[in-house]
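Q: Sequence in, structure out?
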Amino acid sequence: MMGWLLAFLVHSTLWLGLTWLWTMMRPHMGTRVRETIWYTAIAASFITSTAHALVASDSAIWQVPLPAALVSAQESGHTKQEEAAVSGSLSPEHGGAEHRSPQVSEADAGYWPAGSAGSSMGWRGAAGWAWLFIVGVLMVCYFGRLHALRRRLEPHELVSDLRAGRALTQLSRQANIGRAPLLTLSDHLGSPIAIGSGGKAEVCVPARALDELDDEQLRAMLAHEVAHHMRRDPQRLGVMHMLKAVFFFQPLLRVAQRQLSSAAEQQCDDWAASQVDDRLTMASCLAEVAAWVLPIDRRLPVPCMARGRSQLRIRVDRLLQEQGMLEAPRWGRRVIGSAAMVVLACGLAPAVAPAGVNPGEKHDQTHRAEPEHLDDVQEHASRYTNYEQDGRLHVESADEHSESTGAPPGEHRTEQQHGRGHR
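A: Exactly. Output:
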């Protein structure tokens, strides 16, 4: 698991970093295109790291060298097992003892090269528990923020205003939402929010909104929140918060969340502007709501209509300049483009390997492992003898055999080799 997390860190840094650089170089990129690229980069980070964990590292066109202690413990832990398998699978012609691997005593334990593997497994286990602990704490903090928001909204009451109810019903029908979200009021809220999902979808607005907004501005505000439910932004934001908690060691996920939230707000502005007379109405609604925002509203874990003042200024300017994209999204092209980018990323993604190991070197070393250690294994195996007594196979070292038979260890090995020659 730790090896996959390391590969995810490398791949996500590559793809999210390139996406951040590309979007910064093209500030006038369409919001839907920018959102698609960010989601594709996040998906590619998971797909490429998983794909490269399932195939040999020499299949990648390039590698990222890292210290050997950081590379997958699964590879370093094979050393002792492979040596034991070689000594146990040797045929009698190769100096084996009846295809049985001898049981090594404590005095002979130094023969096996397992020091680095054991220490690596030790710190990996500690790191794994530490990672789980931090993830647990961050997840508790996230759900605690949601619970605190619910308590802060209490008591919130259903909206009985007929104009707001009719507007919400019409907008929900336009958005193809099967059931209109529940519309509630709260005195402890400075900005409208969209919370819940499905049958529990809810739009909660500040109490002053019904008194200080005209009909068109109220419709624009409700349309913005309905657009969040239409796009399932509460669920998307929740997934991003959990990804940030699980992969807390990747700071670029926070950048991705900010960029995706900004793109979502701008697309909701576009849809809301299309449901009123002109875009100026939506811009004036944003400017009015911005004056209500409380400092605590800027850190809400749910979609919030007015959050950062700098982003609000950008959104208002964008609406006034009519740079919104109101045409229907071309899902086919976006899906095909995302799939092509993921496939290309799988081919260009690097492999994570120990420093100093070139592609193909590890494969060659694996094939040369048995001939290189064959003489050592033969000598080690010759120190033991196998014999049957009472229908059971017994294994004893040469020193033990010499004590029981009175023959010197050297004669024992000579007799063994002579017997193998006759067989």
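The longest helix spans residues 115-153.
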